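In this notebook, the sequence line spells out the residues, with the fold written below as integer tokens. This is how one looks.
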Amino acid sequence: MMGKKILFYDCFAGISGDMNLGALVDLGVDAGHLERELGKLNIEGFRLEVEPDMRKGISGTKVTVEVDHPENEKHRHLRHIEELINGSSLSDRIKEKSLAIFDLVAAAEAKVHNISKEKVHFHEVGALDSIADIVGAAICQEYLEVDEIQASPLQLGGGFAKCAHGMMPVPAPATAEIVAEIPVKTGLVEYEATTPTGAAILAATVDRFVSRMELVVLKTGYGIGQRDGDIPNVLRVYLAEDATRQADDVGVEEAVMLECNMDDMNPEWYSHVTDLLFESGAADVFMTPIVMKKSRPGHMLSVLCSQDAADEMKEILFRETSSIGLREYTVKKSMLRREMVRVQTKYGEIEVKRSFYSGRVVNEKPEFDQCRRLAGEHGVTLEEIRKEVYKKL
């Protein structure tokens, strides 16, 4: 079974708009296709220069937007950008992605300068080269037809950078706004490693930021930046597949495991806490007997849940248990495909959960609560109910 097709951004040296275009072309996007699609914007006065280049022994592709007429590099407002993109013959998906990137930059600039998005002058971003970088990013990503986009933590750089407003600390204020809630690193180099355009491309299009890549790499591309220092000024991208090439009927997903140790809680409360956790969406809750410090007997309460549910699970643990600390880590769940079937027995109808592996049924389990209810209603044992169910399977 083939895994999901994934585009992975390895941003160890940051990202800019031109580095992104170079990396994606190096990965396999047809440069001619990119130029033809950009032509649908109906803007004259710029062209793409695509050439091989190298940084610190790493070869890749360098893409530069050459502007023929400097007067075309005028300032624009957000509505001008929206009119330009919406008025083009680009696909709806490319339009949507391009506008999302521009909107992020506009919102960040507006917050930094305490004005509305509509009043933001798109200085560098409104120039032809940045329009090409942003719309080109959407074109290239759509060309690759990936199922998911992932990225590493983003290197921002350090020191100071010169922009239209003068010298700014790195990250520039707009970049700092754009990367809110994105994992970042700083200080690798003393310059602006990630530009607002590069940050916005990732913030608007990446599905997941991960600290560790666990993929099957199919192809690697390098986008060459404008600098040449001690650190290779390149953006590395991978075309990859999900590393979990499982047999048919096996689904894989990431989950969160929360754990806390308790030796001073009334055991009668355990079932209450367990019920609350399950009702709030926990996938599994279980207790493990342990021996704690000073040889005190205790229990470890473990909660398996989705990333989205983790905060609510923590709140329950802190509010409803005696624990004052917990552990949290990411795990990978492998789950068999399952389906529910209804079985009619002489005692009544019972649901049976079937699990599949490689197209075959490998497990069948009657729902326990239904079996217990029917056993009580008919005055028979659970074993009798179980036998009746399996007669019908």
Summary: The chain has three domains: 5-242, 250-334, 336-392.
